[in-house]
Design a protein that fits this description.
The chain has 338 residues and is an alpha+beta fold. It folds into 2 domains: 147 residues, D-amino Acid Aminotransferase, Chain A, domain 1, CATH 3.30.470.10; 162 residues, Alpha-Beta Barrel (D-amino Acid Aminotransferase, Chain A, domain 2). 22% of the residues lie in helices and 29% in strands. The strands form 2 sheets. Strands 1, 2, 3, 4, 5, 6, 7, 8 and 18 form a 9-stranded antiparallel β-sheet that branches. Strands 9, 10, 11, 12, 13, 14, 15, 16 and 17 form a 9-stranded mixed β-sheet that branches. The structure holds pyridoxal-5'-phosphate and 2-OXO-4-methylpentanoic acid (COI).
Length: 338
């Protein structure tokens, strides 16, 4: 194996094993281990035709002490249950989720990037409808798969400011649609925005609320936050994913003596922020230096010296420090697994 850990992009690298469980006759099977990257699937499976699927994303972090930690894995397990309910799929029991992710990490431990490389082992649990249906209805059979892959930072810049573009001619999710579920359909819907802003030279789209286009929703595959007057502010919306990273940053901000607000956040307010950023498992904290409104050409600038702001930096260092076991985990977010 010859991986240059510190140069890894956020992409797929083959590992040795994945873990699978099957749902049939109302029951989940015990886990199976596979060394294949493929599986046969029925041509009429609901996942293929009607998007009946959901996934998760979490990471295993190698610490300075060489121990391997998971971060808030139970929140991911619960969110997968929330997504499953949203698409009328059976919930993956919390114990099965845990057993599968632990097994997948253990079996591929040689792929866990060493401490200090900026890379981590990304864990991707996936739930799909495998039963055949032609009418639009929930399948009666499902498969739960967990694979892992070593990844670098989601935005190739790492902890460096990125430029974001507001998209108005496509929506990721409707106000009462599937935005709070981590389901493939939302990502399919976001591809138009992603490709459009990449072509214009921007890292990621900013989505506004689909109904009025007045409030900030989220940044591609990450939540949005802004900081002003010692306050951490993040959008409340019925069409965005409830980010576990964002939940953690809200707690950390509070612990640092900041006020925290989760509320509808008008785009007009953006000019008043001292710092803005995107957050998520993959994005960690990604500071934003510029937001362009592609329709009007108006630009909002942050990080005027080209560097991440002081509060974003402190939040980043604390979060990453806890994840790697360097800062005391007073919230009990981490679990040593290896
Ligand atoms: N928003 C979207 C659309 C995402 O795909 C993700 C990633 O999972 C996030 C936000 C961040 O969520 P989390 O911090 O739980 O990874
Ligand atoms: C995450 O896990 O933070 C993501 O949203 C990853 C993305 C590639 C879907």
């Amino acid at each position: 194996m010859n991986l240059e850990w510190s140069k890894l992009p956020f992409g797929y690298v083959k590992t040795d094993y994945n873990v699978r469980s099957y749902y049939k006759n109302g029951q989940w099977s015990d886990i199976e281990i596979s060394d294949s990257e493929y599986f046969p699937i029925h041509i009429a499976a609901t996942a293929l035709h009607y998007g009946q699927q959901a996934f998760e994303g979490l990471k295993a972090y190698c610490g300075k002490d060489n121990k391997v930690r998971l971060f808030r894995w139970k929140d991911n397990a619960e969110r997968l249950q929330h997504s499953a309910k949203g698409l009328h799929m059976p919930e993956v029991p919390i114990e099965l989720f845990y057993k599968a992710i632990i097994k997948a990490v253990e079996l591929n431990k040689k792929y866990i990037p060493p401490y200090g490389t900026g890379a981590t082992l990304y864990i991707r649990p996936l739930l799909i409808g495998t039963g055949a249906e032609v009418g639009v209805k929930p399948a009666s059979e499902y498969m739960f798969i967990v694979f892992v892959t070593p990844v670098g930072p989601y935005f190739k810049e790492g902890f460096k400011p990125v430029k974001i573009a507001i998209v108005r001619d496509s929506d990721r999710a409707a106000p009462l649609g599937t935005g709070t579920f981590k389901v493939g359909g939302n990502y399919a819907a976001s591809l138009r925005g992603i490709v459009k802003v990449h072509k214009a030279g921007y890292s990621s789209p900013m989505y506004l609320d689909a109904k009025e286009k007045k409030y900030i929703d989220e940044i591609g595959a990450a939540n949005f936050f802004g900081i002003k007057n010692n306050t951490y502010i993040t959008p409340y919306s019925t069409s965005i994913l409830d980010s576990i990273t964002n939940r953690s940053l809200m707690k950390l901000a509070e612990f640092m003596g900041m006020k925290v607000e989760k509320r509808p956040l008008p785009l007009d307010e953006i000019e008043t922020f001292e710092e803005v950023g995107a957050c998520g498992t993959a994005a960690i904290i990604t500071p934003i230096s510029e937001i362009i409104d592609l329709d009007t050409g108006k630009k909002y600038h942050f990080c005027k010296d080209g560097k991440p702001g002081p509060i974003s930096t402190k939040l980043y260092n604390t979060l990453v420090g806890i994840q790697h076991g360097e800062i005391e985990d007073i919230f009990n977010w981490t679990e040593v697994i290896l």
